[in-house]
Fold each of these.
Amino acid sequence: MPTFFTHTLAIFQKDLKTEWRTKERLSAMTFFAFLVILIFNFAFEPGSPIMQSAAPGIFWIATTFAGLMGLGRAFAIEKQNDCLLGLRLTPADPGAIFLGKMLGNMVAMLLLEALILPILVIFLDVEVFAVLPRLCVPIFLGTLGFAAVGTLFAAMSMNTRLQEALLPILTLPVLVPALLAAVESFRGILEGDTLSDIFPWLKLGGAFAGLFGAACLLLFEFVLED
Amino acid sequence: MRRPYIPAFVFGILALIGLAIAPYMALMYAGMEKDMGFAQKIFYYHVPSAFMMYIGFALCAIFSALYLYKKDKKYDIWALCSAEVGLLFCTLVLLTGPIWAKPIWGTWWVWDAQLTLTLMLWLIFVAYMMLHSYSEDSLQSAKFRAVLGIIGFLDMPLIHYATKLWRTHHPEVVRGEEFGLPLDMKIAFYFCVLTFLMLFLAILFKRVSVEKAHDELESIKSEIRDRKAILGQLGSD
Amino acid sequence: MNAIELSNVTRRFGHLTALRGVTLSIPEGQTFTLFGPNGAGKSTLLRIIATLGKPTSGTVHIRNIDVRESPEQVRTHIGLISHHTLLYDDLTARENLTFYAKMYGLKNKSESVDEALLTVGLADRHKDRVRGFSRGMKQRLAIARATLHQPEILLLDEPFTGLDTAARSLLSDMIFNLRAKGRTILLVTHDLAQGLTLSNHFGILKRGELVHESPTENITETELRTIYERHVGNLTQG
C-alpha cells in the first residue's frame, strides 16, 4: 500500500510542477472565472441587492465552469505524446493514477477559489472575510466532490469524438447535489448561520464527496483499460 | 424463435389488453377525487410511468456492473436497452407531470423535489445516450456507458435528498393516497401499474431482441469480410 | 527460460478479431522482429505483452509470470518505446526521468537518472525542458525513459516512424547496444530492411495469425521480401 501513495504523490507533484512552470491552466481558469462574474454584473444591476443574494450562486457557477475547463486541460497534458500510456506502463495502480490526477485538479480549483473570493468581495460587495473559516468547510467538500466526478469524466470524454465538449454534459447533471449543497451552505453562512445550522447541507456535501470519491476511484480502472 | 421474441410477444399482448382496459379503470371505475377532481386522473398514468422509469434505470445500473465485471456483450445490450426504455418512461413522467400540475398548482412547472429529480435523471440518461452516439469505438463506449449508468444510479438518492432539502411542493397526498385511497381508486391504480409493467417488459424484450439481431448482423458482416479477404488472397496466388 | 511466451492468444474487440490463436516463444536475449501490414494485429500483440490489454483467450507469460495474474510485476520487466515519446514537454529531461524513476520505485533514483542521461548523451542538457529538444534528442530521452528501470525485455512499436536519418541510425545503434547487453527485444515494424539488420529472428503476422517464423540468419533482404510477399501479398499494394 505505501507504493500506492508514492505513485499518487509522484503524479500529484509532477502536475504541480508542470503547472507551476507554465501557469497556463490556473491563469486561464482564473481569467475565465473573472469574466463569468463580470458578465453576471452586466446581466443584472451592478451592486444591487439581487447581486448580493446571488453571490453564492455566481461563485459556484464561475468555479464550476472554470473547473471544467481546467479538467479538460489536465488530461490534454496526458494525451500529448501519449503520456497516459507511459503511466499505464508503470506498476502504478489505476487508483493511484486517479488519485494523483484528482488531487492535482483539486489543488488547482482551491487556488482558483482563493483567487476569486476577493473578486466577489470587490465587485459584489459581499462580506466574505468575516465568515471565511466557516466558509472553507462547504467549499472544500464541494471541490472534493467536483474533482472526483470531474476527473473520472474528463478521462472518459477525452476518448470520445466530442472530446472536452462532452465533459459538461456528463458532469453537470451528476454534480447537482454537490452544487446545491455548496451553494446553500454558502448562502446560509453569509446570512449568519453556524456550521450546525447548515449541517444537513454539509452532510450532503460530505456524502457526495465520500460516495463518489470511492466510486470513481474504483471505476477509473475500467476507463483506462484497453 | 431463438431470440426473446416470445416474452416480447406475450408481454405485448398483455400490455395491449391492459391498455385497452386502463382508460376505463382510470376514468369510469375509479371514483372522482374530491379536491383535485378530474385532473387527478392523470395520476393513474403518471405514477406507474415513474415506477417503470426507476425500474429501467436500476436495471441499467445492475447490468452495467455485470458488464464491467464479466465483459460479456449481452450485459451491455441489456444495460443499453434498460436505459433507453427507462428514458422513455422518464420522458412520459415529465410530460404527464405538467398536465396535472397546471390545474392543481396553477403552473406547468414547479421546482419541486420529485420533479427536479426526474429532470436530473432525464439529463443524466440523455448524456448516457450521447456517450453511446459519440464514442470512437463500441467497446470503449460500452465501458464508459456502464460507468455512467452506475454513477447515475448512485446519484439518485443524493439528488433526491438534495432537492427535498432544497424545496418540496409535491403533496404528500400523492404518495400517501396509496394508503388512504378508497378501494376503487386503489384497484384502478394497481391495475395501471401492472399494465405499465407489461408494457415496460414488452418494449424492453423487443428492444433487446432487435439489438441482439443487430449485433448478430454485425458479426455476420465481419465474418463475410474475413472470408472475402481469404478468398481474395487465394485468387491472387 | 523464455522471456516472452504466448500460447494460443486470441483477442477480440467486439466483432473484430485482432489476434487468432497466436503461439510464440521468444527466448532471453533474442531480438525478434514482427512484420506485417497495417491492421495485422501487431500493436494489439505488443499491448497484450505490455499488460495494457488482456487476451480474450490463451495465456501470456513474461519471464514465467502470468500476465493475467500479476500485471504489476510484469510491468517492471518491460520497457516500451513507441513513436510517441511518452514524455512531458513542460518538464526538464531530468524531471521526466526522475518522475518515472519514482513510478517504477527505483532505489537510487538520482544515480539511475544520471546514468541514463549519460548513456543517451543528454547529460549536459538535463536542465532543459523537453519542449525545446529536437526530434532526435526527444527520441534519445524516450529510450532513456524506457530503459531507466533496466527492463530485461524491450518492446519497440514502430520506433522509426517520423525520425530523420541521423535519429534513425542513432536509434539502431542503441538497439544494437541493448542487444549486446543481452536484452530481449521485440520490434514491430513494416520496414523490412531495418528489421532484418537489427534482429536475429523474425515473424510475419497477417490478419491476426502468425503465418511465418524463422531465424534471420542467411536471409537476404530480397529473400525476406519474397517470403513476405508470398504471405501478405504485393508490397506495393499494401
Amino acid sequence: MAEQVSSPAAAETAASLVGESYDPEEILVNVVDLKKYFPITGGVLSRVIGHVKAVDGVSFFVRRGETLGLVGESGCGKTTTGRVILRLLEPTAGRVEFEGRNIFELSREQLRRMRREMQIIFQDPYASLNPRMTVGDIIGEPLEIHGIARGAERDRRVRELLEVVGLSSHHMRRYPHEFSGGQRQRIGIARALALNPKLIVCDEPVSALDVSIQSQVLNLLEELQDEFGLTYLFIAHDLSVVKHISDRIGVMYLGKMVELADEDELFRSPQHPYTEALLSAIPIPDPAVQRERERIVLTGDVPSPANPPKGCRFHTRCPLAEPICREVEPEFKDLGGGHWVACHMAPRQVTGITAG
Amino acid sequence: MALPEQDVREIGALQGHRVEVETWGRIFWRRFRRNRQALAGCAVLLFLIAISVGAPWIAPHDRDYADLTKIELPPSREHPLGTDQIGRDNLTRLLYAGRISLLVGVVAVAVSISIGTLLGAVAGYVGGWVDNIIMRVADIILSFPLLVLLIVLASIIPPAIPSHYATMAVIGFVSWPGVARLVRGEFLSLREREFVEAGRAMGAGTNRMIFRHMLPNSVAPLIVSATLGVAGAILTESALSFLGLGVQPPLPSWGNMLTDALTWRVLAMKPWLWVPPGIMIFVAVMAINMVGDGLRDALDPRLKND
C-alpha cells in the first residue's frame, strides 16, 4: 500500500516458506506474505491518513494434524492473522492456501462451502454464544446452514457433540447464561466440531477461563485432536499454555513473525532476542530457581503499528541491537531443521529453558 | 437441609429427572412482577382496553344519536357525563373514542416499528452507502418540526380514505426514523460481538444473521420503544385531531372531543365536556409509560438475573 517492500531481504520473505523438501500433501494451510492494514481516517471528509499495519507480511504453514501455536503481546497481530486466514476479515495482500486453494479467490458460495472445513473457537465464552438461542440451536445451527441435518437427526447429532465435549445431552434445551465459563467454552468447541472441520483456529480459547479450568479445556482440545485428526492454529499470549499444546510455535511481534520453530527447539534455543525475553518471563514453579535466574526485562513500549520502526522492528527495544538493525530489515531465514528466525544476530549461542 | 436452586436442578438432571428450564420469558416475568408501578399501569391499561372494546355493550346510549332538546346538559342520572353540543351522550362517546385513540396509537406504532426495524436493520447490517442513504433520509424527516410535517401530510391525504386510517399511517410514517436509529445502533454494536462473527464463520447468510442472531438480541429496546411510542402516538393523534386534521367527526376520539370543547364559554362553564377526555388521555399515557418503564427494567440485560 503506502510503503513498498524495498530491501531485497524483505522481498525474499514474500516467498512461501514451503520449500522443495516439503510434501505438498502434508501442508494443510500455507500462509504467504499475508498483510492486513486497517485504514486510519481523519479530518472532516474522513480521508485515509494512514494505516495500522496489524499484520505486515507474515508467512508460515500448518501441517496436517499438528498444532501451530502463535504467541505475542496483545496488538502484535496474532488474532488478526487468525481472522484473515478464515477470511472473517478481508486481507490487504498475500495468499492463504487451504489444501492448495487460495481462499481469497473463492466466490461467496465457494467460501460458504469452504467454511465447513475451517472453524474457530473464540476467546470469550460469554460473548461468543448467542444469548437468545438454546444450546441445541447454537450447536445445531452449522448443521442447518450447511443442510447436513435437520429436526430429529440434528438433535441426535447435537446430543452426540455435547457428550463428545463432556457435557450431557439434557443441556440441549438450556440457554448459555445457565452455564459456567468452562462449560460455555465446551459449547463453543462443540459448535466448531459440528461440521467436522479440518482446521480449527483457536483464538485464545482459555485466556478468559479460570486457571483450574484451563487445563481441562486444553486436555479436551488435545483429546479431540487425536480423535478427529484436527489441525489447530492455536493463538495465545501465554507461552506456558502454548508450550503445553503446540507442536511448533510461531512468535509474532508488531505484525511480523520473528521466530518459528518446533516447540522444544524454541524453548531450548530461542534465537530471537524477543523470544528470549518472552521465555524468561515464564515463571518457574521453583522459588530457588526462580530467584537465581536472570530475567530479561524489555524497556519501552511496543511501537505503534501505524508507524513501525525502520529496519528490524524490534531494534528499539532490543538489547543486542547493532547499527545494521536500524537500517536493514532482517530476512526470515531457516537456520536448519525448520527453525526460522528474523534476526541479524542469529544464529548465536543461547541457553533457553529446558525445565518445565 | 436446603440446597440452592441451581444445585437442586443440577442433581435432578443427573438423576435423569425432567428439569425445569428457566426461559427468558420466565426470567422476564419474574422481574416484571416485582415492579408495582408497572403492574398498576398494566391493570389500568387492560381496564381501558376492556371498556373501549366493550363500548357497544356497556355504553348507555347510541354513539351518534343527537337529541337537540338535550344540548350541553350537565351530568345527570341518565347522562353520567352530560351531553355535548348537539345532544349526544358524552359517556358513550368517551368509550367509543377510546377505541379510536388506542387503535390509532397501536397501529401507528406498528407501522413505525415495521418500517423503522427493517430500514434500521438493513442500514446497520449492510453499512456503507446503503446505510448512508437510509440514515440521511431519516435525518431529513427528523429535522422537520414533527407537527408541521404531520399537518402537511394530513392535508394531502385524499378525503376518500377514512380519517382514522390516514391518521395512523401519517403518524406511523413520521415516527419511523427514531426506531431506525435505535435498531441501527443496536446492530452496529451487535456486529462486533463474537457470536455474530461465529455466525459468519459458520457461513450463515444475511437473512439468518439478521433474523436469528441480531434482531432477537435487539428486541428488548424495541419493545420498550414501541410501548412508549404508543403513548406518544396517542398524544400526537390528540394534537392532530385537536387541530382538526386527525380523526374527523362524527367519529369520536379523545383528541377531537377536546377540540369540540374549545370555546371560552365551554371551558369556563361546562367542564364535563373537556375534563373526561383530558383525563382519559392523561391516564392512558401514564399507564403505558409505566408499563414501558417496567419493561425496560425487566428486559435490561445488564441487570444480573437474580
